[in-house]
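Subject: Carbohydrate ABC transporter permease structure
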Amino acid sequence: MPVRTPPARASRRALTALGVYALLLVGAAVTLLPFAFSVMTAFTTPTQFAQEGAVSLPNPATLGNFGELLGGAFGFGRSLGVTLAMTAVLLVGQLCFSIMAAYAFARIEFPGRSILFWTYLSSLMVPAVVLVIPLYLMMVQLGLRNTFWGLVLPFMFGSPYAVFLLREYFRGIPRDLVDAARIDGAGHFRIMTGIVVPLSRPIIVTLALITVVTAWNSFLWPLVVTTGKTWGVITVATASLQSQYTSNWTLVMAATTLALVPLVIVFLIFQKHIVRSITITGFK
């Protein structure tokens, strides 16, 4: 006969579940409400915002803030283009160089491989802010200050986190597949592009998303290495806009919304790949 749960225990479980969901709802509200207020304010006229504040729905909704931001003298459209180009270059560079380095550490035997890998990985212990001044001096010496390549060059050749993530995933690929390809005459480049990379698509997509979010939200390095509006990125442009137009919060929130929308779209497109990369723990 089936074992029945006592009513008291069932009640405790129901209350526990209710409490957990209540905490999750509170956490979600605290996280999402600022974004909701930001979007509502972006579609609100300055007059309505001054009279009713950010908690009121736009009545009527307006696109005037976005038009003023993109069509005015703020240079925000150029900042969007610079940020998009920077993100694309960093994405391609990070993926290409990180994949090659991770494959070498995972599948190619050479003297000192482990020592070199763990030495490289130990650079994760160094705070990123410590490297800002040395990198800045290098860019000045190379004549790349306030240029596009000054923005991307220090960060396009892979990163310790990306190499570690890909290396661990590559090591999980069955060696029999690699050995079979090598018997058929395939070299390392053919094995990497024809076997390892296709089998590692979930983790590569996840790494691509992390790279896009990191590059899109980068602030400190673009702020240091660039001046003016020529090569300013969207984060620096938004901060500058806020410092200059603190009384016009509808314009500032329009800039914040424009910066937020691309990341939301990217996440919605690739969220299944992220879940899959977390749940996969091996290969059959």
